[in-house]
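step: validate -> pass
step: tokenize input -> pass
step: predict -> running
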Amino acid sequence: MHASESHIHSPDISFDGGDLDCGNGLLLLIRKHIDPLPRGGLLEIKSSEISVEEDLPAWARLTGNELISWTKKNRQWSFLIAKGKFAERSATVANPVPATHDNGVVKVTIPAKLPLPIAAPTIAPLSVMGIGSWPRPRWMLQAKHEHMEGRLDEISFQATADDAVRLAVSAQLRAGVDVVTDGEQRRDSYASFVGGLLDNCQLIPLTDLLPLVDDPEEFARELRALDVPAEEVRHPAVFGPLGRSRSLAVHEFEFARTLSDKPIKIALPGPYLLTRTMWLECISDRAYSHREELATDIVRVLREEIAYLLAAGTSLIQLDEPVLSEVVFSGSVSKRSFMCGALSEKNDVPTELGFARELINAVTAGFPRERIALHMCRGNWTPDESAALSGDYTPLVDTLSKLNVGSLLLELCTPRAGEMEILRSIPDEIRIGVGICNQKHAHIESLDHVLEKGERAIQLFGKERVLFTPDCGFATFADNPLASENIAEQKLKIITTASGILRQRHRITI
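step: predict -> pass
step: emit ->
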């Protein structure tokens, strides 16, 4: 295609990328503007950077968007790109740009006063619960993709998700769990989903990050380890001051509550995880001068969400911080890692663990400790055990002991996690959720194996402190479940059977 004198069609949205190239933030700005468009919507990209002449047509081909035309006057390029195919364009395309301030970012809403917690069903000793995610039905995955691509409206998506949640909760109840989750059916992954809900944050395909990392080839190899097309996995990118003008998960709790009177757990990505995933130097530093400033707003929005969850009656709020294992087990301070999407910089181990501890305790300060939990593992995106991190809890015990949480839900079934005995020094006021089956494996653990592991936990920590879980969720990434619904249900059933025997043995009544 050769340059035209002018565009035949008028754009729905236009922006000027100046002299940014595709490896220095231009792709992220394109995502910010093109993602809100309906299929067939037209985006004009203006640029004075010479490399876009080759890079933008290549990007359009790679991402499945259609380059309609481009012009060049002096050193100013203008590209007109259709989201998807221009043939998908409807007769009228509504203006998708949200209301903005003069600085071009979405208005941030900060509640003047947070609500107070209300009573909720308590969680008894030796209770059984899933970690969070549950395999999504194929039709739910299709609905998720169509919703993210603008081809399924919000009401229809939520109705479809409600059906998927009903199935996930029913399976857990059949298995006999004591604490219910909604299976994270509405989420594309356990953590990145917040990027589509927070103000001034956008979900972008991982493929868009290739030009932004130090070693694109190595990063591409890490993406292939996902066993899922990287363009289907999205990553949160920050474009302005973060705000929470809509809930992240309160709506998940409210629907799950209509399906069961058992205690309900809601998982949220932790503040350290979100800081590490959202701090992309090429774009985030336009909204925040450093990652600690970004972390301050992450702490604020998480505190707002937790307050509303507790005020709605959520029994347990779980902060997911698996990237803590990346800090101590990845083997390099400077190495970028895909682990949990934590692509940003990190310092030495003591500094990072101290930073994580400060963020987590800032989020949980003042909330009922017994209703806050923390979960960590060593990676949960592939059934290949050799691809995940390995190492026992020795370098993490001090940090875990100083967290203001009431429960630690820990990966402990896989040999990669070491021995439970290492956790004996965890303070008595913290419950230990023992990972007692391996969600990565298709085989169902024997009852004798689960009983032995459960009994060992009781002997180490005391019957009042022990909870039982799988090592991690069954479907961390929506498109990449590690187990079928049937296998997941059978694994939970084995845990609940073992728990029932152990309750009788140790005279625990629920």
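step: describe -> The domain at 13-88 is CATH 3.30.110.40 (Translation Initiation Factor IF3).
step: cleanup -> pass
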